# Entry
Amino acid sequence: MGALGVIPARYASTRFPGKSIAEICGKPLICWVVENALKAERLDEIVVATDDNRIVEAVKGLDVRAVMTREDHQSGTDRIAEAVEGTDAEVVVNIQGDEPLIDPRLIDELAGVLQEDSEFDMATAAAVIDDVQMLGRPQVVKVVCDTNRKALYFSRSVIPHIRDGVIEENLDLYRRHIGIYAYRREFLLRMVAEPPCALEKAEKLEQLRALHIGGRIAVLDTEESGIGVDTPDDAAIVENELRARLG
# Structure
């Protein structure tokens, strides 16, 4: 079962315009993402889906295919769906274009779930929350699962609620959602064809649309939460981390 990695990268980021080509340790951010994704072993091909020729130019010389997509997409998921139309890949991995430290092993694990288990339509990841301060932050998305690690719900609120006792004594119940996804291509196309549901509009979480239409989402445990780049300050943090890793 073929697997395609797609990296959505738009130029006009609201909080950090041009971040995809912002220089980190001597090369554009998008190149760090691509180079880590290329280390994944289960992907047959990697595509950079963008809306700007400057990003296309940035990845020239790397072993990826860059495709131009519409400028008016509301999300990276919509951009990916356009990029995979007409392909024969059965599994599509959405590799966030602002995650320069993405772990290729996690990419392989997500692709592998859909290649080896027909029960699921999607796969994503979560990490244990070990800091109670993170629970109250709406930007930290929480997920709860059933006994088979199938997602039951995602929320910006603190879930589950501890009725008796204190949160600090029950931290092992909390998982932080990590925003990387693998989809069956047909389910991805079905999902983007559906309008946002009320829960998605309320929480501003696309994965709730997948649950709303009956999607079965596997949630893999990971210790790698990554560092997303949303602002120039985030880029500085990543640069420091990369310098430490590179020695």
Notes: The radius of gyration is 18 Å. The mean pLDDT is 92. The first strand starts at residue 3 and ends at 9. The CA atoms of residues 80 and 101 lie 20 Å apart.
